[in-house]
Amino acid sequence: MSSTLTIPGEVGRLAEVRAFVREASRGRVAPKLLEDLVCAVDEAVTNVIVHGYDGASGPIEVEVGGDSQNLEIRISDRAPRFDPTKAPEPDLSLPLERRPLGKMGVHLMREFADELRYAPRRGGGNEVTLVKRLPARGGS
């Protein structure tokens, strides 16, 4: 079973996205892992709003689903195509004052999810899926 939230691409809607992911994922992952995923989703949606729609507002759909082995959060938009799986890793060896401002969103998405998938949407846009593997449940 999955739950879906559709919002306009506006920064003021990010709190709603975070609350939706928490509620739709409740009980499926440990609280610390859930907060990591919430952060990853927040970064993904922020990237769509700020970079994808570049100041214009467009639709963003967040779907939380999966199965007994994986929690999957899919973020879909109609922004120009961008494949985050091909984005370069930031140089974390540089001192903070020498690092470019920003450029950490995709890195956090990779760090907080077990898998990051990308697919272009038919007719334009992007579909990014964050996957978190769930621990096996005991019992037989």
- What is CATH's topology name? Heat Shock Protein 90
Strand-and-helix sequence, N→C?
Answer: EHHEEHEE
| Spans where pLDDT lies below 50 across 5 or more residues | none
Distance between the termini: 23 Å
Tally of strands: 5
Notes on the protein architecture:
The protein has 140 residues and is α+β, with helices and mostly antiparallel strands. A five-stranded antiparallel beta sheet has the order 1-2-3-5-4, with helices on one face. The chain is globular. Helix 1 runs antiparallel to helix 2 and helix 2 packs antiparallel against helix 3. It has a single domain (3-133), classed as Histidine kinase-like ATPase, C-terminal domain (Heat Shock Protein 90, 2-Layer Sandwich), CATH 3.30.565.10. It is built from three helices and five strands. The two termini are 23 Å apart.
Task: Provide a short characterization of the protein structure.
The chain has 140 residues and is α+β, with helices and mostly antiparallel strands.
